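Input.
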Amino acid sequence: MKARSDMSFFDLVYETARRVPRGRVTTYSSIAKFLGNPRGARAVGWAMRVCPHSDVPCHRVVRSDGVVRGHPDDVRKRIAMLKRERITVNGERVKLDRYYFDKF
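Output.
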């Protein structure tokens, strides 16, 4: 594994997202804050959108209001994946008070 200082921002985002356990979710802004870029939530979202790694659980990263976002087909897939992990999704929203994770 590369040293943290040798990794791109996107690689750091992917490494952080991999730490979110099954059955939990985090937010774009939580990852950005953890990486020392508190205003970088949109960049985290972009990293999730273009993620080339199948082992990164992008479906576990949601907006700070708990809403699952993306292209409509992607949203349906992400919600289905969350439900398979026994995460309750009401409409397109996850209850962050129940499933939120930020102990990276």
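The chain has a mean pLDDT of 95.
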